[in-house]
Design goal:
By secondary structure, this protein is an alpha/beta fold. It contains six helices and nine strands, in the order H-H-E-E-H-E-H-E-H-E-E-H-E-E-E. The strands form two sheets. A seven-stranded mixed sheet has the order 5-4-3-6-7-8-9. Strands 1-2 form a two-stranded antiparallel ribbon. Helix 4 links the parallel strand 3 and strand 4. Helix 1 runs antiparallel to helix 2 and helix 2 packs across helix 4. Bound molecules: S-adenosyl-L-homocysteine. S-adenosyl-L-homocysteine (SAH) binds next to strand 2, helix 4 and strand 4.
């Protein structure tokens, strides 16, 4: 076991312990994805600390516990088709891909440069099935709808209408919601198209553009 493997495993143990992540699929995914390979070289020593890190363009990769909590709330299952808004460096997409299968992850990133780099990085690391589109996530990605699950990795005033539309009835959405203070919200889409919302505590994410 390398030093990095050891640090990654200790991080996963903390997620299971302190953060009470119970879903084994999520813990296994967190243990599998090499977070250090997604962050800039000079940030790699801190890759298995449980905190956000800068990834360029003024953006950050979320803390590992936040990625794990969101995956847990989404109740991801193999073969679920998942829409991600905010690819960033691609790490969170990699975690989702471990659970649902890379070909079921469709991700939209606003910054063209980040999208391009994430696509290449995901490919290099064996997640070439993940699809990344540069564009505005508020529009979702209708070509691949309907989705079983959708999540935002940037804070929005509300779940974007197009994203809600592209999730199937019974599907789940998770996002940081709020313009000032943000709350992590999980919503289930009802048959009539309305959302049933649950609040899951205060969070801090970069903003949706
Ligand atoms: N999940 C990412 C975290 C990215 S931070 C990771 O694992 O690294 C949030 C990302 O959302 C940033 O990369 C930002 O550029 C992107 N973003 C902001 N507004 C957006 C929009 N309207 N559409 C798509 N992506 C957006």
């Amino acid at each position: 076991m390398t030093d990095r493997d050891g640090r990654r495993q200790r991080l996963v143990d903390r997620l299971a312990g302190r953060e009470k992540i119970a879903d084994v699929r999520v813990l296994d995914a967190m243990a599998s994805v090499p977070r250090h390979a997604f962050v800039p070289v000079h940030e790699r020593p801190d890759a298995y600390a449980d905190r956000p890190l800068p990834i360029g363009e003024g953006q950050t990769i979320s803390a590992p516990h936040m990625v794990a909590i969101m995956a847990d709330l989404l109740e991801l299952r193999p073969d679920d088709r998942v829409l991600e808004i905010g690819t960033g460096c691609g790490y969170h997409a990699g975690v989702t891909a471990e659970i649902v299968g890379a070909e079921n992850v469709l991700s939209v990133e606003y910054h063209e440069k980040l999208a391009e780099e994430a696509r290449e990085r995901l490919g290099d690391l064996g997640y070439e099935g993940v699809s990344v589109r540069a564009g505005d996530g508020k529009e979702g990605w209708s070509d691949h709808a309907p989705y079983d699950r959708a999540y935002l990795t940037c804070a929005a005033p509300e779940f974007p209408d197009a994203v809600v539309e592209q999730v199937r009835p019974g599907g789940l959405l998770v996002a940081p919601i709020g313009t000032g203070r943000q709350t992590l919200v999980r919503a289930r889409k009802r048959a009539d198209g309305e959302l049933d919302r649950e609040r899951h505590g205060g969070v801090r994410f970069v903003r949706l553009r």
